[in-house]
Amino acid sequence: MKLSEDDIRRITLSAIDELGEKASPELVKKVVQRSVSNFEFEAPKTDKDLSSGRVILTAYGLNNPGIVSAIANALCKSNCDIQDISQKIMQEFFTMIMLIDITNCPKDLKDLQDEMSSVANQLNIKIFMQHEDIFRFMHRI
Amino acid sequence: MPFEFDEILETIKMTEIEHFDIRTVTLGISLRDCADRNVEVTKQKIYDKVTKYGSNHVKFAREVESKYGISIANKRISITPLSIVGDAFKADEFVEIAKVLDKAAMEVGVDYLAGYSALVQKGFTNGELELIKSIPFALSETGRVCSSINVASTKAGINMDAINMMSQIIKDTAEKTKERDSIGCAKLVVFCNVPEDNPFVAGAFHGVTEPEVVLNVGISGPGVVLDAIKTAGKVDLQQLAEVIKKTIFKITRAGELMGRKVAEKHGIPFGIVDISLAPTPAQGDSIADILQAMGVQYVGAPGTTAALAMLNDSVKKAGLMASSSVGGMSGAFIPVSEDAGMIYAAKMGYLSLEKLEAMTAVCSVGLDMVAVPGDTPATTIAGIIADECAIGMINDKTTAVRIIPAYGKKVGDFVDYGGLLGQAPIMPVRELRCDNLVLRGGRIPAPMRSLTN
After folding, report:
1. Would you call B446 helix, strand, or coil by DSSP?
2. Same structural domain, A112 and A70
3. A126: left (phi over 0), alpha (psi -120 to 50) or beta
4. What is the average pLDDT score of chain B?
5. What phi and psi, each to the nearest 5 degrees, are found at residue A80?
6. What is d(CA A63, CA A60) in angstroms, rounded to the nearest whole number?
């Protein structure tokens, strides 16, 4: 739990108000503990940075009809913008890489990944979603 | 598409098949402001500070993991060497503090907290003597606290008194934790030239020149290098060095990105990326396998040291090019118990303690996770530590000894810790004695190398 200096001042003032002259170390501890537990903390800020930028989606597995459409549909429902697709069949293996802009997606990347893994389970393939920075760092100087 | 098909598949292959992960993100916390005359106050301050900074550490690391699709194996904390924070305390008070650290580590969900440490290469303060005395109790009564003692440096020479003391402490720790194969010794490292920003446990601590809080990263990825070498096939050594460098470059970049993002979430400075190849007991995640792929039959064969030297140097070169914040040990680790190939070579008798010592002259650390018979005399352990320190002191490099004189065990037995610490066969130690040398005590003077000004 994080207390700002203002919070500490408020707790101190309320303890002084309540105790006045009869303050002893035990009493102070009791009052402070009570006010800390009653204290209303500001809700932590939601982490918006997870749902901006572009991610790379990689899907592979045994080829089946409807894989591209199932993935594209799920992305469309989440308001994700597909900017590029590259797809190959190698022997009977299906491989697809998509570049997706998730800036307008209301969900964060974690939720999107969970959603995709349930799509992957239905289709019996593997789907990864990773922020594009990892590829830029590893493969570009 | 801004990236090639093959580039993307290469990254996925590294994480999915070749065990590439970030070995550790370690949060370094200065505890210097927690010093107080009263041990109760110190304990409270330490607990508050570790839990304050550490509370979101695991959560932030998980978020970054899922954003980039690369797993972070361990989330850890390092602290200011405790002897500095508690210089006025006695041994039993240090043990109390160790328990508080253990509790704080459990509270924030990190598996290890390191920095139960003292730097005594040139001599002891009273507090440092007390802390060293308390180590067997602290390590046997806690689960997550790790300890390291620096006993030598190129600038100060080798403190033989400290080495003698530490070899007895190692034996005592082994006895105190005998029910669990002397596991206490796996959490205790003796160093020469210890780096102050190393993120790898058990030797990590938050150096006195470091900022208030900092985030350091240790990468890993022996499996990735192994696969690259196998794919390269029969090429000459210069080309092989190129292959290793290219691979390390990529994983270092990934490590730095992940570390910077975790630090950003904490709102604290990013420290260093330690580009060490750290093995795990998992199949295919082994330094020994890399050396074998380079061409030696098994680790311990003639040529092993040369192969390791090239590997270690290539790792450093690529890391330096990839990041401007390289630090820690940066090279290749060769722990015996944590590496399936090393375990096999030791078990078969291919790898002797002497060959391992030669290898430590060119690897990034030293004799690591080596189990020896429980009846090895303390003076012999002191001799082994002194030899390692001599290599480190003269070559201006970090060396360390993490040796386990497994209580009640002899050659042919095993110690088995499971998990990352793995298992180690008890290796034979020469029965020749060095008592008359080490028991002279005093300090081996600093070498020529120390006079560089």
Report:
1. coil
2. yes
3. beta
4. 95
5. -95, 145
6. 8
If one counts the domains in chain A, the total is 2
Distance CA B55, CA B105 (A): 9
Model confidence pLDDT, tens digit, residues B142-167: 999 999 999 999 999 999 999 999 99
Q: What percent of chain A has pLDDT over 90?
A: 35
Q: Give the fold, CATH level 3, of B23-192.
A: Anaerobic Ribonucleotide-triphosphate Reductase Large Chain (3.20.70)
Q: Which residue has the tokens 């070559």?
A: B395
3-state secondary structure of B149: strand
As separate numbers, helices (DSSP H) first and strands (DSSP E) second, chain A gives 5, 4
Same domain, A64 and A133: yes
CB atoms A47 and B63 under 8 Å:
yes
State the helix-helix crossing angle for B91-108 and B126-141, rounded to 10 degrees: 50
How far is CA B392 from its chain centroid?
15
Complex ipTM value: 0.85
Q: Which residue of B has its CA nearest to A88?
A: B5
A83 shares a domain with A31:
no
Q: What six digits make up the tokens of B155?
A: 């600038």
What does the block give as tokens for B321? 């090019």
Residue B97 exposure: Cα atoms within 13 Å on the Cβ side: 38
Q: Do A22 and A59 belong to one domain?
A: no
Using CA coordinates, name the residue in chain B closest to A100: B1
Indicate the angle between helix axes A67-77 and A109-123, nearest 10 degrees: 150
pLDDT at A45: 46
Chain B positions touching A137 (Cβ under 8 A) are 253-254, 256-257
Structure token pair of residue B326: 């390289």
- Model pLDDT for residues B245-298, shown as the tens digit of each residue: 999 999 999 999 999 999 999 999 999 999 999 899 888 889 999 999 999 999
Contact flag A110-B256 (C-beta cutoff 8 Å): no
Q: Does domain B219-439 have CATH number 3.20.70.20?
A: yes
Of B66, B67, B254, the CB nearest to A137: B254
Nearest CA in chain A to B55: A1
